[in-house]
Amino acid sequence: MAIKKYWDEEIETISKNNLKKYQLEHLKKQLEWAFNKSSYYRQSFLENNVALSKLKSLQDVHKLPFINKKIERDRQLAKPLLGDLVCVHEEKVIFISTSSGSTGVPTVSPFTTKDFKEFQDVESRLFWGVGMRPKDRYLHALNFSLFVGGPDVIGAQNLGALSIWAGSIPSDRLLFIMKEFQPTITWTTPSYAWFLGETAKKQGIDPAKDLSIRKIIVAGEPGGSIPATREAIESLWNADLYDFFGISDIFGACAGMCENKDGLHLAEDHIFLEVINPDTLEPVAEGEEGEMVLTTLRKEARPMIRFRTGDIITATSEKCACGRTLKRIKVKGRLDDMIIISGVNIFPSDIEFIVRGIEHLTGEYRITVFEEDHLSKLTIEIEKEDHSTIEDIELASLFRDKVKTRFGIKPKEIKILPKGHLPRETHKAKRLIDLRNKN
User: Fold this and answer.
1) Quick one: which of 56, 273, 277, 418 has the fewest CB in 10 Å?
2) Partners of 434 in the beta sheet?
3) Please, are residues 87 and 303 in contact by the beta-carbon 8 Å criterion?
4) If we measure between CA atoms, which residue out of 358, 400, 404 comes closest to residue 380?
5) Is 333 helix (H, G, I), strand (E, B) or coil?
6) Residue 352 in contact with residue 381, Cβ under 8 Å?
7) Quick one: three-class SS letters along 50-92?
C-alpha cells in the first residue's frame, strides 16, 4: 500500500485564497472567544477601541494591541496560577508547561484537551514532514520537566513510530540507549547533538558507523538553520539534520523543515504570522528580516493575540519544492541576543556561520560584549582543532578578516583556545556574555 506524502494534505497544500478565508474565519472566532471569556482581553480591546465587528480582513489585525512576555508575566502574577489571559476555568486545563524563566518568573502555558490534541497533531505533521514513518524508532531526548517540547513524543506515537521516552539524561545513558535499541531518529538541540557525537567518539563509538541514527531533529538554537553547522553535525553522525521551531507561550514545535531543508513550514492553520520592524512596529516586506508576531487561531485555554515573540526571522509564502504551500520561516536569532557594534546588528548565529566555515576550528565559540570609551566592543573566543598546524596568530588574523569582510567591523580581540577549553552544554549553549551596564 502506498504511503501518503503528507500528514494532512488538505491543509499543507491549501491554496493561498482558501488559507486566507480559513484564517480570517478562525481569527474572528478566536477574537470573539478572547473578548467574551478573558477579562484581560475584554478590557484591552475596550481601552484600545477595538471593534471586532469591523474586522473585515487579515490586514485589520494591525488594529489590535500587542502583547509581550512582560504582559504575559504580569497578568499571570495578577491572578495566579494561570492569569487573566485565560478563557477557561482551571478544571478544563489538563496540561501546563512553563518557560525557562530566565528573567526570574517562569510563565505558564495552559492546554485544554482540545488544545493538547491539536498540538500533538501538528507534531505528527512535522515529524511526517522530515520523513518519520511507522517503521522508525524514535528516541525523544528532550526534557520532560515542564518543558513544552517534552510531550511532543506523543506526536511520534500518533503516527505509529516506536517511541522511546528518554528525556534529558546523562550522555552515557543516552549513548547506551542508542547502542541497545538502535533508534533511527532523535531530537535534541544543535549544541548537544554535536557534544553527544564528540562524546561518543571519545568512548570509541563512531556515531556515523556504530549507531543507527539517520535523522536528527534540533530546536532551541539557530544552529539547525545554519548550513555550516547543519553540515558539520550531519557529517559527524552520517545523518540528515532538520530544524524545528517551537515557542512555549503557544505550543511545542509549530514550524519545521521538510526533507528539502529550505526553511521551516509554519502551522498557519493554527497561527497567523506577522513580521514587523521591531522599532517602528510596521510590517516589513516579504523576505526582509523582522520580529515574529504570532496570533493563535484555534487556542481554547489561552489565546495569544499579536504576541511579540522577540525572534528575528525572514518569511516567504513561495510554494516549496515539496509541494507544501504554508509559509516558511528562517530564524535568525533572538532580539535580546542581538548586539550592535559600530551600528551593525550582529547575532551569535552570524558568528557561528564564520566559525563553522573554518576547518581549523572545532566549531565552539563564545562572544563577550563590553563597553570601552562609551562604545560596545566584543571579544570572540574560538577553539583550535588538535590536528591544525596553523599558528595561533595566523588563525586569529584569518578569523578577524572574515568578521571584517562580513560585517565591516573588527573585534577587540580574538582568543585562540585549545580544543575542549570552552564548556560543552547538554541543553542550550551559552554563546553570548554581555558585560555592558553590569556592576
Assistant:
1) 56
2) 369
3) yes
4) 400
5) strand
6) no
7) CCHHHCCCHHHHHHCCCECHHHHHHHHHHCCCCCCCCCCCHHH
Q: Report phi then psi at 335, rounded to 5.
A: -55, -40
On the question of a cis peptide bond just before residue 241, with omega within 30 degrees of 0, the verdict is no
What does the block give as the cell for 106?
517562569
Class of domain 339-434: alpha beta
Bridge partners of residue 164, in order along the sequence: 139
Q: How far is CA 226 from CA 243, 341, 352, 389, in A?
A: 10, 22, 8, 27
Apex 437 CA angle, 431 and 439, nearest 5: 100
Amino acid at 24: L
The domain made up of 1-334 is a member of CATH 2.40.50.140: no
What three-state secondary structure class fits 179? helix
CB 291 within 8 A of CB 278: yes
**pLDDT tens per residue, range 175-207:** 999 999 999 999 998 888 988 999 999 999 999
Handedness of CA 281, 60, 317, 130 (dihedral sign): positive
* Residue length of the chain: 439
Structural domain spans, the chain: 1-334, 339-434
**Residue 12, SS3 per DSSP:** helix
**Helix, strand or coil for residue 424?**
coil
| pTM for this prediction | 0.85
Rounded distance between C-alpha atoms, residue 72 and residue 44, angstroms: 13
The Cβ-side half-sphere exposure at 129, using a 13 Å CA radius, reads 37
Cβ partners under 8 Å of residue 340, min gap 6 = 346, 376
Q: Are 216 and 241 in contact (CB under 8 A)?
A: yes
The type of residue at 106 is P
Closest CA to 191 of 382, 433, 424: 424
Contacting residues for 244 by C-beta, under 8 A, at least 6 apart: 126, 187, 217, 218, 219, 224, 253, 255, 256, 257, 264
β-bridge pairing 328-334 and 307-316: antiparallel
For residue 343 the three cell numbers come to: 551600528
